[in-house]
Amino acid sequence: ISQLRMEFKNRFGDFRAYKEEFRLFVAPFDIDVNDVPTWFQMEAIELQCSEELKAKFSSCSLFHFYKNVIVPSGQFPSLIDNALQVVSMFGSTYRCEQLFSKMKFSKSQLRSQLTDNHLNDILFLSSSVLKPDL
Hints:
The protein is mainly α. The chain has helices spanning 2-12, 19-26, 41-49, 51-59, 62-73, 77-106, 116-127.
């Protein structure tokens, strides 16, 4: 169990640095305007003053709110940028893990003679979604 705890701590330790960005994404109406970065304070005030947006936020899912309410309005560019960064963070971590797994498989003992150039080519082919037209 202690090894598992250490693994979680190592993998997710960086997330503490993004605590405010996560809070801003998950609960934009509950944050204290003085606690957010200065680049976002005006948008936070405008957002929290809108009763219409508060009602929409409480009546739909988080992703639906951003995708169908905030992004199309274009009123809150800093909020949109923050949301895109938070949402893409998890997908990119997953892709990195997949790529390292493929690299480990490719550099197994059976293929120990691979050079870095060959490895780049193999990783490109294994992670590509292109299909040959034969």
